[in-house]
Write a structure and sequence with these properties.
two-stranded parallel sheet; about 35% helix; about 25% strand
Length: about 250
């Protein structure tokens, strides 16, 4: 009788534990981003490098994910209002930090200036940008080294519109993350450097972060668990393998 009772208790404990585990692992985060290859894109392996990093770390932390790619302004709005749980990858600004909690950096990126190859533009001092017309993607956090009011800027909706404005002479320079610019240019112009090139020095180095909407009451918990999992996949070699899977050389510290 005692053995039968212990057996029944063990079976009950098993189902309780299984149900609890499923409840925890079943939580799905709805995450959004724009098309930002090679870091985020529905057309890339596992959604791109940054998407793969985020979903791998979240899975290690006990979360499932549902991903949707939207125009950037809409993606930010969805997360700001709580319609989405977070954004896969975003640069930090003080204004954004009012609405989102930021993870530790996913990766570091370089901001460059795209120009027409045939157009002679020499930038020895970044303060000299004020003499050029610059295309700025809507709601992107460029943080130009000169004040916006001192720069002739045109707001554009996407990178391809910026390329067209460059071609037509409507703008002189188009800021973009270097790997993103290379990827998108290679996609439409295999010999892209015959038409477009980079001008001047690197504008700056910016860290890309995973962010969670402050509308979620457990935002602190999600970010803490994500950061712990990100450190784990970095230390056990998983993160370096993710870079290799996407044919991108891992950073020196991996």
């Amino acid at each position: 009788m005692e053995r039968l009772l212990l057996y029944k208790l063990a079976i009950c404990a098993y189902f309780i534990l299984t149900s609890f585990t499923r409840a925890v692992s079943a939580e799905t985060l709805y995450l959004v981003n724009d098309d930002f290859p090679p870091y985020n894109s529905a057309s890339l392996l596992k959604g791109g490098l940054a998407t793969d990093i985020v979903t791998t770390a979240l899975k290690r932390a006990g979360y499932e994910t549902r991903i949707e790619f939207l125009p950037w302004s809409r993606a930010l709005k969805y997360a700001k209002t709580g319609r989405a749980d977070g954004v896969l990858g975003a640069w930090h600004t003080e204004e954004r930090a009012k609405n989102y909690l930021y993870s530790t950096p996913l990766l570091n990126s370089k901001l460059r200036l795209v120009k027409l190859t045939a157009k002679e533009i020499t930038i020895e001092n970044l303060e000299a940008l004020s003499v050029y017309s610059i295309g700025l993607l809507r709601n992107y956090a460029y943080e130009l080294p000169v004040a916006y009011e001192d720069t002739n800027t045109t707001v554009i909706n996407d990178f391809y519109q910026g390329l067209e404005l460059l071609r037509r002479g409507r703008i002189d320079l188009l800021p973009e993350e270097e790997n993103v610019a290379r990827h998108q240019l290679q996609k439409i112009y295999p010999k892209w450097d015959e038409i477009y090139n980079f001008a001047g020095p690197v504008l700056g180095h910016k860290a890309l972060h995973f962010v969670i909407s402050k509308k979620r009451k457990d935002a602190d918990t999600i970010i803490r668990r994500f950061n712990e999992a990100l450190a784990q996949i970095k230390s056990d070699g998983t993160l370096a393998q993710i870079y290799r899977d996407h044919n991108i050389p891992p950073p020196d510290d991996l």
